[in-house]
Amino acid sequence: MKYLDTPTGTTSVGLAYGPNVLEFINAHPGLVDYVEMPFEQLRHAPQLSSIQDRIPIVLHCASMSVAGFVPPADDTLAAIGLEAERTRTPWIGEHLAFVTAEGLDADADAAQPPTALTYTICPQLSEETVARVADNLASLRPRFGVPLILENSPQYFAVPGSTMPMVDFIGAVSARCDVDLLLDLSHFLITMLNTGGDAAREIDRLPLERVVEIHISGLNVQSGVVWDDHATPAPAPVFGLLERVMRRARPRAVTLEYNWAPSFPQAILRSHLERVRQAVGRV
Amino acid sequence: MKASRVHAVIAAGLDNPQLLAHWRQEPDLLRGCGVEPAAVDLDALWKFAGLAVKVRHNGLRAHLPLTFRLLNVAGLEIEVFASYASFRAAEGGRYADTSEARAQDLLTFLAGWLDSDRREHALLWDVIRYELALAQLAGPVASDAHVDESSVTHTPRAKSVPRVCGRVVLHEMRCDPRVVGAVLYEKSPRLDEVQLGTCHFCYWRRGAAAEVNILQLDELGFYLLTLADGRRTAAELSRLTGGGSRPAKGFLQALGELAALGILTFDTTAGQAL
Is the CB of B61 less than 8 angstroms away from the CB of A118? Predict the structure, then answer.
């Protein structure tokens, strides 16, 4: 079994698990330091864990609903804890988002069951949510032997009742909860483009010293909105943001998330890995 | 607005896009859920539901790379999948368990949803059928039914019974999807440069070991293959295609040309009246 051990002051470079990842890693020895694996995939297909015979795993998660008001099932948390121990992931990346919400008619005599989705949603950006994240983290953290780090959501629309922009929300959560961050640069750029923010100026307002891991993926304008897209390469502005962050921060890992399409061009994958390695001083 | 109620509304609308339509018609329903109607961007939620369903269909990308590329290049991804999400919600909300079944379900939806007057829609309809035909024919092949080769001939007569060798998928299309495929992988794809017209394609795999062949046929050849069922005689096919019961020379010649390609053979003993 391989485990990730990133020496202090250096940055590991990894790939999100997806079709053809293992073949790519075997064909390009030394280019990829780890594979980021979603807990949900490991739970659904435990045989995927055998990849750790070849390369370390960093655990990612989309099940804890950290910014939500419906707690995750206890057996889900127990399973995440087991995977964290088994993989010896250095941290668990979780979304600063919700995946489950109260039923629509919470006041009904027969309470409706919660609505559980299979993907994460940007929460209301408010003091109320910040307080809830703090409460949730207080109960979640003791369950794991490694830190939870929180990933910023992409914002596709104004969430009703929000009282602060995304950057202030992330800053408030980080300060109040004393929690480190997984900065998804593509999510960040998407949020800025969809809400009219200045990405270069706003990123400087983030607590970049708390960034442990960075995500990079593509984005895509469809039907008048900018969307996350792991099937297309990251555009130049995302790499511009990476260079900007690296001037102020030393994340321990950068993950390329190009995992939606088996036809993703291998030459571009290789060139983007090399570009990231250069940006983090690994060449 | 309480965050928990806002989350409840967003999650319910994404889970069941039919609710979004209800709320659009009766915004006050949202107030009853604890959310101010004017604060909810229902159109954006509907689009987001489309993104979620698109991601849910990532498993189809291996079989439908051109389809997904076309959806992306034509700017149709969200529109198609958001509409599909609403369609599925109206149908009960469940998605099939296998990629093959999901692809067929998507095709069924597109058949009713696409607007053939829109160029990109016409291209999409052809490209997805092209890719599904290739995927379908590339699958495991059952051994052909036994045919007494002594009774098979390649020269048709009125009483000959044309039989397709192997498996075929026949599609009338408005473009050549192979041309669309080439355009899609150009640096700046120009879909408006793809010529539209009527094309008749036969996707054909002769047997388990064979490659899938793509034949572009004339109209007569296309309809002959459509009608050749291994039971009707050439005379019956002639009648069904508007000719007399005594097949014209040109008609038999067309059958002979398909036989020369290897796609048809003629059984002189198996005919039966229909």
Answer: no
